[in-house]
Design brief:
3-stranded antiparallel β-sheet; 4-stranded antiparallel β-sheet
């Protein structure tokens, strides 16, 4: 009976407790919904990982280092081996020593591959007789440019000349040349107004005048220049030095218009010789070379002294 009284005395609280529990359930549901929405927004704000790109591997690049454009260009540029460079320098010196007749004879030999001198002569190089051709080829053989084989035949002896195998490729380059069109052209200085150009050209003229009695001459053959002297190497060196200085002055002297060929020369003495060739011409031509325009500037010091006077006059104007 006592317990009944207890429950009966607190019965009025049941509706309130039920209402509170319902409110708690509703509040829990609201909080759960809010939490779910926050988590959904948080997940949506995260960027998805980038798609995996397919990896392409070239088997040809495995193990090869990455090279710069300059290194790649150098790798593509044909390089001579040490042996080829040696043969090139040997042939170059030999051609400078032997002169234009050797070039004519070697070009002729490369065309015909083999020349056999025996009872009858082969087709000889243009402008040469038997003695000249034989002497030239023997000199080339002594320098290692050609091979020489002697054989005894019934009733006669034969001498055969061929291009030396080690010289075949380098002679192609030396005999027929390569173009320098890709080389950058040097630029003329514009800071020349304070120099005494009349005095400088007068100095060059005096240097050449002192050497006028020498036998020094310039030889232009197949696009190549050489300054030579038959009897006086010291005078040759002095004239070349004077040409070097004159060519340097020519490059910067005001009032003188230079052709592209003259201006593009990297060596001053060659620039001076090209300028003489264009303004005063070759005074002796090499025969039998067609339109090659090869020849000589004889009395080089005298011709140069005259050109210095003309350059001084242009600088004065």
């Amino acid at each position: 009976m006592a317990s009944g009284r207890v429950f009966s005395s607190y019965g009025w609280m049941v509706p309130y407790l039920f209402a509170v529990s319902v409110l708690l359930y509703v509040l829990a549901a609201i909080l759960a919904a809010i939490h779910w929405r926050r988590e959904r927004k948080k997940y949506a704000s995260v960027s998805p990982p980038p798609a995996t790109q397919p990896i392409s591997i070239s088997l040809s690049n495995i193990g090869n280092p990455v090279v710069s454009q300059e290194q790649h260009a150098l790798a593509e540029k044909p390089q001579r081996t040490s042996a080829q460079q040696h043969h090139y320098e040997t042939a170059q010196k030999a051609l400078q020593k032997l002169g234009p007749n050797a070039v004519i004879a070697l070009r002729h030999l490369k065309t015909h591959r083999t020349l056999i001198f025996g009872m009858y002569d082969p087709l000889l190089p243009a402008g040469m007789n038997h003695e000249q051709a034989m002497s030239t080829y023997q000199s080339c053989a002594a320098e290692g440019l050609v091979t020489q084989r002697d054989a005894l035949k019934p009733g006669t002896a034969e001498r055969t000349f061929e291009i030396a195998p080690t010289m075949n490729e380098v002679l192609d380059e030396l005999l027929y040349g390569t173009s320098d069109a890709s080389k950058p052209m040097p630029q003329r200085s514009t800071n020349v107004t304070k120099r005494d150009w009349i005095g400088e050209w007068g100095e060059s003229k005096r240097e050449f005048t002192e050497l006028e009695n020498s036998d020094v001459f310039a030889e232009f053959f197949q696009g190549n220049w050489a300054i030579r002297s038959d009897h006086n190497p010291l005078a040759r060196d002095q004239v070349e030095a004077a040409c070097e200085l004159a060519g340097s002055r020519l490059f910067n002297s005001p009032g003188i218009t230079l052709s592209e060929t003259v201006q593009s020369q990297k060596e001053h003495w060659k620039r001076w010789l090209y300028y003489l060739k264009e303004t005063q011409g070759l005074n002796r031509r090499i025969c039998d070379l067609g339109s090659d325009n090869s020849g000589y500037i004889e009395r080089l010091a005298q011709q140069s002294a005259l050109a210095c006077t003309k350059c001084a006059a242009k600088a004065f104007n």
